[in-house]
Amino acid sequence: MNNIFAERLKKAMEQKNMKQIDLVKKAAEQGVKLGKSHVSQYLSGKTTPRSEILNFLATTLGVETEWLKGTDVSVDTLKKETNEAGFQMENMKFDYNYNNMKENDREAVEEAQVREFKKSSKLNNVLYDVRGPVVEEAARMENAGTQVLKLNIGNPAPFGFRTPDEVIYDMRQQLTECEGYSPAKGLFSARKAIMQYAQLKKLPNVSIEDIYTGNGVSELINLSMSALLDNGDEILIPSPDYPLWTACATLAGGKAVHYICDEQAEWYPDMDDIRKKITSRTKAIVIINPNNPTGALYPREVLQQIVDIAREHHLIIFSDEIYDRLVMDGAEHISIASMAPDLFCVTFSGLSKSHMIAGFRIGWMILSGNKAVAKDYIEGIKMLSNMRLCSNVPAQSIVQTALGGHQSVESYIVPGGRIYEQREFIYNALTDIPGITAVKPKAAFYMFPKIDTKKFNIVNDEKFALDLLKEKKILLVHGGGFNWHQPDHFRVVYLPRIEVLKEAAGKIRDFLEYYQQEI
């Protein structure tokens, strides 16, 4: 029946003098999810649409749904089509018209005709709303010609942040030497530079064999979770979090148990909440320091409390430190692994943020401390690292250059520097809006403001983000996208220049002067 549908769709489009792009535009106007690739697949007979899309197509093209679907064809035609598709249906008796078949018989024929492939059930509880439904709506708007101001993702390059010239030059010089695979853990030169960086951060008991490069920290988070967690194992993850941690733990079969970070205490982890959530199945605790999405930076005394808890309950510490070189106000970043030589720690960092090369995809993972207690786990890490062969070699080739010598990022994070001044502006501009409060971030380039839900009648933070997008063409990520379970926060990325942030803050202020969420 795919072929019948395809022919009739083509015929109906010709009669209406409509092209594929016309259908896509009509769908966008009516809020229907339909892309040009979908229409192409329908016309080629590769697939048929679900009922919502089918009804939209029939209405738009002015034809009957049953006619378009092809359910009015004779049994002989249907049998011919199914045989052409390679299905064995000789034993089925077609002695009455398809339209007169019982519902169960019709479903059986359709199931034989169109095999539907669904996502794995392992993904049922996996969420990653940093690039979720609101972002998809923004993409539809852009495809329709609408300009959207994006404050949703920490990607420096589109906002005019440039990679240091020396990094680009050195990569060009080495490209011909990067055509083959590297060792699974990474190039010697890259790992040596990372090891020396780990020494400067005072990470204990680290050799070059304890360092793994990856296609960004994201790949290594996934790898480390997959190697550790069995079904039902628990891992403590902050709320709010960077959602990839929760997604990867869930995908690995584990259970992400979220501990609260307290907004009233500079977004520091709530130690009592951590203790309450530890069970016999808890294997590890994750910290994100500096923090995404809050911009918090944990002082030594907070880190010491986490170390004490991990020591008491024999937990692995995973520390995501990708923003460790983006610390402002003269504060110091401390690697928690430097305080826990007797515990097994895994520390993550990379060049995506500090060197403005998110697209190069280069990150690393450092194993430190008491590795004797994690021998088998380390074997699992090695196995998965070998299976992906290696991380991308051209990006590895510039790690040594990037980590050595002058660090250009330092000019951005002091008074007069772009990141520092943009933070100052957005913090003052948003907290000046009635109904918005925020803790001033101390690191990274994010802020996690709180919105007065009673004032604006907000019960669904994703709907708030969607309403703002549709009304003011500004794209933010709602707090729920970071596993924050109240509808009262959103994340702002302050990478754009001040004039752009000024425009965005003005639009948010205008929006909130009249906004009342409709339930």
Automatic annotation (TrEMBL):
Residue ranges of domain HTH cro/C1-type in the record: 9-68
Give its E.C. classification number. 2.6.1.2
Q: What is this protein called?
A: alanine transaminase
Its source organism is Blautia wexlerae
Q: Which InterPro entries match?
A: Ala_Aminotransferase, Aminotransferase_I/II_large, Cro/C1-type_HTH, Lambda_DNA-bd_dom_sf, PyrdxlP-dep_Trfase, PyrdxlP-dep_Trfase_major, PyrdxlP-dep_Trfase_small
Q: Which cofactors are named for this entry? A: pyridoxal 5'-phosphate
Q: Which family does it belong to?
A: Belongs to the class-I pyridoxal-phosphate-dependent aminotransferase family.
**Which domain of life does this protein belong to?**
Bacteria
Q: Which residues form the signal peptide?
A: none
Q: Which SMART domains match?
A: HTH_XRE
Q: What class of enzyme is it?
A: transferase
